[in-house]
Automatic annotation (TrEMBL):
Protein name per Swiss-Prot or TrEMBL: AtpZ/AtpI family protein
Keywords carried by this UniProt record: Membrane, Transmembrane, Transmembrane helix
InterPro entries: ATPase_put
Top-level taxon of the source organism: Bacteria
Transmembrane segments: 20-39, 45-69
Organism annotation: Selenomonas timonae
Length: 78
């Protein structure tokens, strides 16, 4: 039998987009968590108070946004 190459229905596309976009919060939590953790470790090692933790927060946001942008670009949503 010959298989037809039909496009997925709108419901399937909506579920795929919902699954992809639900990972946005996870991206931010993971990236900010990692950068804050590294900042706290650097603060403890260097004895700089909370300077490295703040730098970790300031670097975590752009890293999360860039990673999210790359993922959306991969799925051609941007």
């Amino acid at each position: 039998m010959e298989q037809k190459n039909t496009p997925p229905s709108a419901g399937v596309e909506a579920l795929r987009a919902c699954g992809l976009l639900s990972g946005v919060g996870i991206y931010f939590v993971v990236f900010l968590g990692v950068f804050i953790f590294l900042g706290k470790c650097a603060d403890d090692f260097l004895g700089t108070g909370h300077v490295c933790t703040i730098v970790g927060i300031l670097l975590g946001f752009p890293a999360a946004i860039y990673s999210l942008y790359r993922q959306l670009k991969h799925y051609k949503l941007v």
